Amino acid sequence: MRQWPALPRWPGWEEREGRVPAAGIRGEEVNDLTLLPCYSFVLGLCGTLDGKHLSYKQLPCLFQNLNLIPDYFTDENRVLKKDPQQDYHLEYAMENSTHTILAFSRELHTCDTNDKSITESTVRVIWAYHHKDMGEAGQNYHGSNRGTKSLRLLNPEREEVSSASLPYFDLTNKDVPVPDKDTTYWCQMFKIPVQHEKHHVTKVKPLIQKGHENLVHHILLYQCSSNLNDSVLDYGHECYHPNMPDSFLTCETVIFAWAIGGEGFTYPPHVGLSIGTAADPLFVLMEVHYDNPSETEGLIDNSGLRLIYTPVLRKYDAGVIEAGLWVSLFHNIPPGMPEFVSEGHCTLECLEEALGAERPAGIQVFAVLLHAHLAGRAIRMRHFHNGEEQKLLAYDDEFDFNFQEFQYLNEERTILPGDNLVTECHYSTVDRIRMTWGGLSTRNEMCLSYLLYYPRINLTRCASIPDIMEQLQFIGVKEIYRPVRTWPFIIKSPKQYKNLSFMDAMNKFKWSRSEGLSYNQLVLKLPVNVRCSKTDNAEWSIQGMTALPPEIERPYKTEPVICSSSSCLSCGLFLTLLCIVYITASTIGNTGPFV
């Protein structure tokens, strides 16, 4: 087979690849997709022009006119239109009997109101094709040959050291019967096999059972007490269950997190996850979240993680800090809201105490995982130093529940004593008629950030919980029954809420959008209960204290973008995106249908 020439690599350019069969690229068939409003499209057609039709006459197909890769967009009514400002530029194209390559570029910010800026947020790419060329009769419908994929086009790539010869061990469930219910958290204890000398884990890969890609929503790996013995390894059990083993309660420190849509994670060359010493994990708990909304019966799962490690030590040990909103019913979102903002605080007080005691020079954050559930629309990790806001630590303004992975930072960020972090989550509940509660189900919500950093210190959780009583006062609650003997607790007065749980009372309240907006403004200013945890269930002294949230600018003011029109292609400094559509008949069906 012919070898295609290597693509030129210019500084600041990024590449992405997609694969579909060679003949019959159906750019103009994009209108038959389930189109989304206000999307930007590139239509690529191969062959030579013969009157009004495109015929398939020459191989390879050589584009000599940049207009053969036109720039289209959809309006608010999902109608496909040609963009009067053409911002996509063909670099080259070629084809043989099995492959087609279209290489095109576009500036990240075009100043075109019909284009979406390309940022570090998630980008949803959709595609369609037909295996036959267009003929005199006109277009062929693509049928099921269409799909979508969420990507982070600007997620910086990492040079990966070959791990083919490195040892590894797998932590996988063994024939777990997934219950026929919406949400299951399954926990299984494992013992790290490397126990006698220090090693570094350099890469973690998800091992998701084939066909269960949508069933396994996330996997968390916790470090447990080193005082356990092998008897805890006998069986798994549902997490957060009244009858779960007591040993599970010793597992509080998150050492790795994977979520749906994510791929394997490779640590930077100077950092690794330490195993094999007395301070390192010996017993670990793997928590797998099964999302089974159709309540399918008879599912058996064997998913898990593969940890690749090396005896060649890196300079630093990696740590993980869970930041954001402590998962509880005190986090709640009214129904019918097009936007509602929740904030979780990694407070100045917690960081001052933990960093001041263990690492006054600060820690270096190199990757962040932003986590929410189905109502999530955008997440930002805001960073403040001595009260002054810094550049966003991480963000995703196009959050996709089905695509959550660690984002490598372009530059490592130092977190110092005196800093504070705010995880800001934006939700939409326009399609819901009842309150959305913080909780474990994907129909509940979370607002979390997982920070990968070095060097490792004894801080595992830096989070907050908003005050619940002031939330209840908003809907008119005056008194609850004390002492609190039930959960959720019961309201005593006023009469309309008497003997209702606070959840029932919040659902009974008649929420309007204006009431929801006023409630949102109140919640963001409420005092918070500080969560500041160490390993082995220990706590920093600030744990449980009440703190006021910092006075910050709301809403967050995004940084102005520097964009260039298509007439400025000769400008010396601009970022460009290089996209490659690599088309091969051997990869049909690699991507599922877009519905």
UniProtKB/TrEMBL annotation:
Required cofactor(s): Cu(2+)
Signal sequence, start to end: none
Keywords in alphabetical order: Disulfide bond, Glycoprotein
An example Gene Ontology CC term for this record: endoplasmic reticulum membrane
Ranges where the Copper type II ascorbate-dependent monooxygenase C-terminal domain occurs: 316-464
Entry's Gene Ontology molecular function annotations: copper ion binding; dopamine beta-monooxygenase activity
Ranges for domain DOMON: 70-130
Top-level taxon of origin: Eukaryota
Domain Copper type II ascorbate-dependent monooxygenase N-terminal: 169-296
The protein's name: Monooxygenase DBH like 1
Lineage start: Eukaryota, Metazoa, Chordata, Craniata, Vertebrata
